Automatic annotation (TrEMBL), chain A:
SUPFAM superfamilies: Pre-PUA domain, PUA domain-like. Interacts with pre-ribosome complex. The keyword Translocase does not apply. Required for proper 27S pre-rRNA processing and 60S ribosome subunit assembly. Residues 95-174 form the PUA domain. It is found in: Nucleus, Nucleolus. The keyword Transcription does not apply. It holds the Pfam family UPF0113. InterPro entries: NIP7_N, Nip7_N_euk, PUA, PUA-like_sf, PUA_sf, Ribosomal_synth_fac_NIP7, UPF0113_PUA. This is 60S ribosome subunit biogenesis protein NIP7 homolog. Keywords: Nucleus, Ribosome biogenesis, RNA-binding. Belongs to the NIP7 family. It comes from Blattamonas nauphoetae.
Automatic annotation (TrEMBL), chain B:
Belongs to the RRS1 family. Residues 300-310, 341-353 have a biased composition (Low complexity). This is Ribosome biogenesis regulatory protein. It comes from Blattamonas nauphoetae. It comes from the Eukaryota. InterPro entries: Ribosom_reg (IPR007023). Residues 313-324 have a biased composition (Basic residues). Residues 154-187, 231-353 are annotated as: Disordered. Keywords: Nucleus, Ribosome biogenesis. Residues 154-174, 253-272, 280-299 have a biased composition (Basic and acidic residues). It is found in: Nucleus. Involved in ribosomal large subunit assembly.
């Protein structure tokens, strides 16, 4: 477990800011407790400093996971956000999508969001914007990338894809083995 | 001129060592060589036809060639004296069988059944028939497993001993090949190489023996280094093709070597600095928003003070609470009303401060 290098931090922040934008600074600089990012076995964890200090007692092989796993770095240095980061994305995302109950299950199975299932969308969402996906009861279901801006969503046929599924809560069942 | 031509009829070869006439050669290379070759060929053929001839049944003329004069160099290296096998060493020491002094292996053995002398091995050899083949006597002291077929056991034992013998023979071949310096490349010794590739140790040849391949990391690295050398210029001309110096391209922690890293506060500052260094989309003007706001205004847009129009009044909004649990669940009220379209202000954004 080690802190991230400058390049790695930059890659991570670029990815995160796609979904949470400027609110990234609330993750870095928190009021209640100090949190930091740690790298362990190619995965990035968002941990409180108190926990990091406690984890210093353990060796590398003995630690499985710590804090919140945000995602993992690939072998070529690219960062991939995982569903385990949903808590923070849902909390801080400026752009959101609410989907209807009809399409909710489909989304949880990994499918993309169709226009027919789109309940609400934040104003002024651009195209290919990172969004957090909620159901109509304001429960976060996952996150994705819009394929249309808000204006474009109003027009267009109901069969069109409105948002691409990047991660959904159903992955906790589907990709159980790879998530830690 | 004739003295410079020598014939080796055994190899049907003629060698002409007359010096080349440079002027004639320069005039026309093809013609010169053609003239020389035709002349020599005529000489060779005329001498060949003077040899004793025979005629074949089908009318072919056969000429008996004499023995070749030229001594050709060895095509293959000197055969290696095979090292005596373990058995041979033992038998020699103990003077067993054919190794016994004064012993001579007799080819012919008297066959009782046929009342004849027959060779011990080879064609028409005597066949050894065991009269007790259909019976296996019980030997006192030898334990027999219940349900075991003694005939099958005998056959199995015979097969196993044959297998063991084959293995021993392979070992012998391997030992000889090792002595000859043949590289062990994992080819089974029974499929021995027809020629020894490199001369055996002790010869004054400039060729080096190849290293034996070890199935280990060190062995593989050895071969890798060899492969690197096997370019033009023996690895020196193309230094960029160094195979062993490839590095992993993933940027890692070692890049930050030398940079001061101390404590958590320092880290927070560093993170903030990096975060601010990224360009955010919200920095620019959101055109659609500006357009919408202009529409909303009564009496159109007052362009005199665009700055104040674009900036929303600063709200003192506290940070979202860092409460445990999933965001959204803590909000008051249950289901929010279905607003038909996508116009909604429930997605409250954190405006730029």
């Amino acid at each position: 477990m080690r802190p991230l290098s400058d390049q790695e931090t930059k890659t991570l922040f670029e990815k995160l800011s796609k979904y949470i934008g400027r609110n990234l600074k609330y993750m870095i600089d928190r009021e209640d407790e100090k949190y930091c990012f740690r790298l362990h076995n190619d995965r990035v964890y968002y941990v409180s400093e108190r926990l990091v200090k406690a984890a210093g007692c353990f060796g590398r092989k003995e630690i499985l996971s710590i804090g919140q796993c945000l995602g993992k770095f690939s072998k070529s240095g690219k960062f991939r956000l995982q569903i385990t980061a949903l808590e923070y994305i849902a909390r801080y995302a400026p752009h959101k999508i609410w989907i209807k109950p009809t399409i909710e299950q489909s989304f949880l199975y990994g499918n993309h969001v169709m226009k027919s299932g789109l309940g609400r969308i934040t104003d002024d969402t651009e195209r290919y914007e990172g969004v957090a996906v909620f159901n109509m009861a304001d429960l976060p279901l996952g996150f994705g990338i819009t394929s249309k801006s808000t204006l474009e969503c109003r027009t267009g046929t109901s069969g069109d894809i409105v948002a691409f599924n990047q991660a959904d809560v159903g992955q906790y069942l589907r990709d159980e083995e790879t998530l830690i | 001129m004739m003295s410079s031509i020598s014939l080796d009829l055994g190899l049907t070869a003629i060698s002409d060592i007359t010096p080349i006439d440079r002027d004639e050669l320069k005039a026309n290379v093809e013609d010169y060589f053609l003239a020389v070759t035709t002349k020599n060929m005529q000489i060779l053929l005329s001498v060949l036809l003077k040899l004793p001839k025979e005629t074949d049944d089908t009318g072919n003329v056969i000429v008996t060639l004499p023995k070749p004069i030229t001594r050709l160099p060895r095509a293959k290296p000197v055969p290696v004296e095979p090292e005596p096998t373990r058995w041979e060493k033992f038998a020699k020491q103990k003077q067993i069988g054919k190794f016994a002094k004064g012993q001579k292996r007799e080819r012919l053995v008297f066959d009782e059944t046929d009342q004849q002398w027959k060779p011990k091995w080879g064609r028409n050899k005597i066949t050894k028939v065991d009269p007790q083949d259909h019976i296996i006597e019980h030997q006192a002291g030898v334990k027999v497993k219940p349900g075991e077929d003694p005939f099958e056991a005998r056959d199995l034992a015979k097969r196993e001993s044959k297998q063991k013998q084959k293995e021993r023979e392979e070992e012998n071949i391997k030992r000889t090949m090792k002595k000859a310096g043949v590289p062990n490349r994992g080819v089974p010794a029974s499929v021995a190489l027809p020629t020894v590739l490199f001369p055996s140790a002790g010869s004054t040849s400039k060729y080096q023996k190849p290293p034996s391949v070890e199935a280990s990391e060190a062995g593989v690295n050895k071969m890798l280094k060899l492969a690197e050398l096997s370019t033009r210029g023996r690895g020196l001309v193309d230094p960029t093709r160094q195979l062993t110096k490839q590095k992993r391209t993933k940027p890692g922690f070692s890049e930050d070597k030398g940079k001061k890293r101390s404590g958590f506060d320092d880290e927070k500052e560093r993170n903030l600095r990096i975060a601010m260094g990224l360009g955010f989309k919200e920095d620019g003007v959101n055109d659609s928003k500006a357009g919408r706001m202009a529409h909303k205004m009564d009496g159109g847009l007052d362009t005199s003070d665009l700055g104040s129009l674009l900036e929303k009044p600063k709200k003192k909004k506290s940070q979202p609470k860092h409460t445990r649990g999933i965001a959204g669940m803590n909000k008051k009220g249950g289901r929010r009303g279905h607003s038909g379209g996508s116009k909604s202000n429930s997605g409250k954004t954190m405006k730029k401060h």
